[in-house]
Amino acid sequence: MASPTPQRMRPLSPHIQIYRPQLTSVLSIANRITGVLLSFYAVALVVWLVFAAAGPQVYSTIHGFIRSWFGQMVLFGCTYSFYLHLCGGIRHLVWDAVYGFELCTIYTSGWTVVVTSAALTLVTWAASIGLAG
Amino acid sequence: MGKELMRSPLGRARGLGSAKYGVEQWRFERVTAIALVPLTVWFAASIVVHMNSDYATAIAWLRTPLAATLMVLLLTALFCHTALGLQVVIEDYVHSGLKFPVLVAMRFGCFALAVAGILAVLRICSGV
Would you say residue B94 lies in a domain? Predict the structure, then answer.
């Protein structure tokens, strides 16, 4: 009788790192990452509302942060995450209605999400800067 | 004897799927997503308009019945959607005994944030 095999790490089958990144997989994980990021921005929204309710002095501290270059960068990240998750989410809702599963349609809708979310981010910031000036 | 016990195993399983009652959560995540499309677009447009507003102007905007109503609806739909989305992420990546406490903490957090946000809106509306 052979003695029992000693405990050792068993080999694992390869995971996603063996695949070349594709538009489909990148957009899939991007939708999840932006969703998690937007959860943190949702916390920031509540903080902003609570500070606004606390009065002008308290509000000025958070307003000062938003106006700073770091605050503006955070807000820019929020805008792009929001539009990517919005457009990606609408693409998912179309899939949920069982439309757009042909391979060429999947790539067309994928690139539409990338271009539209970038364009909406730029339009939003152009409008914001335009209204400020 | 209960009606469920009288049914055949196939009859009990039919339509439930492997996740049993999971389909309700899946559906509610989509329903909140649909609600969030107009609500978040309205919010983004409002922020663009009020980016450079002073405190009095921002508060005056939040006090209008339309803005207050939409803000409460946004907070409700947003944190329902956040809780459902984060639940899926946690269930996918946390497999240890931490899974249940992390899920409960996330749910409590979402609920507390939604309540805090709604109360802040109501406080602004009732006059600080």
Answer: yes
